[in-house]
Records
---
Amino acid sequence: MAPPNHARRLAVALIACALGATVLSSSPAWASNDVLDPGTQIFNDSTSSTKDAAHALRGQAKRDALLLSKIPSSTWFTDGTPAQVEQDVRKLVKRTGDKVPILVAYNIPFRDCALYSAGGAVDVESYKAWIDGFAAGIRDEAVVVILEPDGLGVIPWYTTLTGDLEHCQPPELAPVNTDRDIAAERFEMLNYAVDRLQQQPNAAVYLDGTGASWLAVGESADRLVKAGVERADGFFLNVSNYEFTENNVTYGTWLSKCIEYATQVVPGDFANCGSQYWNGGPANNWTGQALNTQGIWSPTATDPTLNTVGIESRYDLVLGDVQPTTHFVIDTSRNGKGPWAAPAGVYPDAETWCNPPGRGLGLRPTTDTGKVLVDALLWIKVPGESDGQCFRGLGGPEDPERGMVDPAAGQWFPEQARELIELAEPALGEPARRGPKH
């Protein structure tokens, strides 16, 4: 990959300063690193899991898998010894030429709280050794590392900023009669991974920022800082989820603003960051409610449950001239239709994130986002692969919404692949528009 034009970037900055403008709002949307600058091409693996799935399929299902295999998606590394993962990573990156592969490191102990995607290294030292092998396999190649999806959204035995103990409480890790801090171990491992991966000169590393319908902004920002985001290249959003790209741009921008506020303006004050769960602020006289994820958020929305003007004015008030600097990437692989609205009162736990029906492929992978803080739109979750065997709180074995047994997490799901293609926005074959609309 050709290096970015640093002279041009410096010239833009000097001109902006001379005009009294802020570089953040007036400069091109350069990435937080050289790896994902606009124009970077994402590597498409000819031996991807999608291409592999096609070999065992017939008819329309095979055609669907082959079609999806033509669009760059990520490669997930989920197990193996340190030597094995080093070899596997090395085999991939040596074939990428001048294009950049998206590598997902997904092996942290008790990933997914031992649910549909259960697995991971057995302990802290094993994980660190695995990361050592992963990093060694990269060498000096240009890569993007998506570091542990759900790694900050689901932490065993974690207490939130509001003092609530979260739902992930595996009994085998119960902190009873021991000095072991289970939650602290998660941050220890992620900090180690950030520092080790950043030793590779051309690795861009992103941490889990959850997504627009998940953690409140302050909660996610606090976890990101604890995990070392200030030494990483940024964070990622919406992995394996279906939230609107526009809302993730908004949420990610607030996350970046919150990180700046709670590290530079009032250190540690993450709890007072504006959040999607209450949209009050100076512009609406501090009256608010939770934002609705079923529509697209905007400061000009006429629906008060979609209007963000209060939150925007709140950040303007506390930040003043301070500008956000933490960048992010967004998984757009399956969010073309946005989130699923489950039927009311039907399921004890609708699991709206788990193989929801009627969803479509989203915006195609690109580094030309037109958004200063958005380094790339990526297909991180491989579209066509199942989220797991979804029971909707009814015990299974069938997914009651689909009337069938869903494939296990990561296995090919022909029925869902067909839906994603049929309902893609933009439709397959159409040129992808340049980033989100607002």
---
Amino acid sequence: MSASAPVPAGRWDALRPAVPVLAAWVVVWALLFRPEIAHAVATWNASTAYGHCWFVLPIALYLAWDRRMAVAGLAPRPTLWPLLLVLPGAVVWLAAERVGIMEGRQLVAIGFLQLLFLAVLGWRLAWAFSAPLLYLFFLVPFGAFLTDDLQRFTAAFTDIGLQVSGIPFVMDRFTIEIPEGTFYIAEACAGLRFLIAAIAFGALYACLIYRSPWRRVAFMLASCVIPVIATGFRALGIIALGHILGSAQAVAADHIVYGWVFFSVVILLLILAGLPFREDRGEPPVPVADTAPPPTAAALWLAGALVAAGVLIGPAVAAAIDHAGAGVPFVPLPAFVPGPGCSTSGTQTSTWSRQDRGVLSGVQNVTCDGFPMTATIGVFRARANPARPIARRRGAVARDLAEDAATTPFTAAGVPWQLVQTQMPDHVAASALWIDGNPALGGLAGRLRQARNSLFGGDFAPVLAAVSVDGTTTMDPRQRQRAAAAIRAFLDAQDGLNGRIIALARAAAR
């Protein structure tokens, strides 16, 4: 039996042996999951919805320092039961990697980091540091899948609000037209960026202000619900302001500024509402010393090594699967036809195909209605991870670089396309992705089908076709509409393209 006694504040000598062990295995963890880390950092830089992620690690370190009194005198107690969770985690990571869900891979990677700290430090210390450790999950740029639902909620909220206010309007899905002009509830206006930031702030506020888990949960729920409702009021307010001022365009020019001012006020009110229930005052916890014999260095290193070995299973299996797949054979790519009002320049794609990191690709320059366009075709390995064509598709339509994006599905020459219009940078592009020889097989069903093909092979290789207009200067809404119409007219002229690409996908899978 071990005894425990009070110790002076500031005694953390018992923790020092675990510091180099954790530092070394965290470096190993970072090397194993460097693609996940690199993708997260790129998303932080490219998207304003996740710019706050740069502050997550400093905040987690502050939360750890804030809990220094509660761990003074405690020694690490390595435990091996977290190993029971490593293998299921490896299976989940591999499933996310095969389906091409980067957010899933990143969430599991952070989960592995939690298990590493738990195995080396033991339950008592890990529980004491649970707030900073769990806060690391905000490093993951997660939540983009909510965008469509948030758009629909904002549109429905605005619809009801305009009916109540008596402002005359006509609504077509996310487009709202009033006598003073037209508004569009774009993806960036759905409130995702504010919702994610508000949840991260709510978690920090709850950890610092409250001790009761119920009060923390209640404030976190408020941080999730209030921003969504506030987004509806924001959209309604901007439209009402345009009606009052008599110009929708004048209000739309500064709608981002109005939105952030409004949301800053909402956050301030949320803070004030939570202050009366604060529990951060009172006597600090009395540090208690752990008088049991300290663990050996070998025990600390062994706990970390066993977790790292289990974590390695997923990446190792994925690498073996990718290595087993054959490359793309050199096959001629079909050329786009100019169509009415269009002209081509340069060499046809069918004569200059090339290998690019396992992708057979070609580019064709076209001019339609005065807009210079780039038409591309990319063929991937039949056993390619679905993340490759999906990521290339997002890059082709500049979604990862866009400040704002509007997606519209349409059909041309029997092929379902996705038209994406972005601002900052100005970009209009349409893309279609053939999975298993089917251009309509998208979403999770397409990912699952290609994940199966990546494991067992398939009769068709994934093929991506894209046509884009890059604005060399800022395009106004009318120019973007003309560019979108030019792309549609060009694709309408591509009779037989579906059959040629299906034949190409079959030939590339041999």
